[in-house]
Amino acid sequence: MKTPFELLEVPDEADDAAIKKAYLRKVRENPPERDGAAFQAIRTAYEAIQTRPDRIRYALFNRQSPELSSLTAQALQPGSVQRPEAKTVTTVLAESALATLLHTLK
Questions:
Q1: In angstroms, rounded to a whole number, what is the distance separating the alpha carbons of residues 8 and 55?
Q2: In the chain, at which residue ranges do the beta strands (DSSP E only) sit?
Q3: C-beta atoms surrounding 52 within 10 Å
Q4: Which residues have CB under 8 Å from 77's CB, separation 6+?
Q5: What pTM value is reported for the model?
Q6: DSSP, res 82
Q7: Cα–Cα distance between 82 and 75 in angstroms, integer?
Q8: Local structure of 63: helix, strand or coil
C-alpha cells in the first residue's frame, strides 16, 4: 500500500505548496469522471498530508514501528491466547509516537 507521499509523488519533506502542486497535477491526470477510485485515493492522500500539522499527525499515527505492527497483529488475531498486555501496547504506542515526532521535527 502506497503512502500519501508516494501516491502524490512528493518527498517526505515537501512543503504545503509542493504538495498542493502535486495534488493538482495528479487530479488533472486522474479526473473523477475517468477513474473515481484513483481520484478518491489522490484526494484522501492530499487530505492526510496537506498541511504541516496534518503531516505531523500522519507521522504520529500512520507510520508504525515494526514492534507496534507485530503487537497489533497479535492482539487482533482471533482466539489468540498470548494477547499483549494493555500497558505494553500503550508503552509501545507512546514510544513510537515520540520517536516519529522527533524524526519529523528534525
A1: 13
A2: none
A3: 12
A4: none
A5: 0.60
A6: S
A7: 8
A8: coil
Cα-based torsion angle of the residue sequence 43, 47, 52, 53 in order, rounded to the nearest 10 degrees: -170
Q: Output the nine-digit C-alpha cell for 53.
A: 500539522
Q: Hey, what's the cell of 6? A: 508516494
Alpha helices in the chain (DSSP H): 4-8, 16-29, 36-49, 52-62, 66-76, 86-104
- Which amino acid would we find at residue 97? A
pLDDT tens-place string over residues 66-87: 455 555 555 556 655 555 555 5
Residue 32's SS3 state is: coil
Please report where in the chains the cell 512528493 appears, as a residue: 10
Cell reading at 65: 514501528
For residue 6, the Cα-to-chain-centroid distance in whole angstroms is 11
Closest CA to 24 of 50, 56, 53, 62: 50
How many H helices and E strands in the chain? Answer: 6, 0
- The fold adopted by the segment(s) 4-61 is Helix Hairpins (1.10.287)
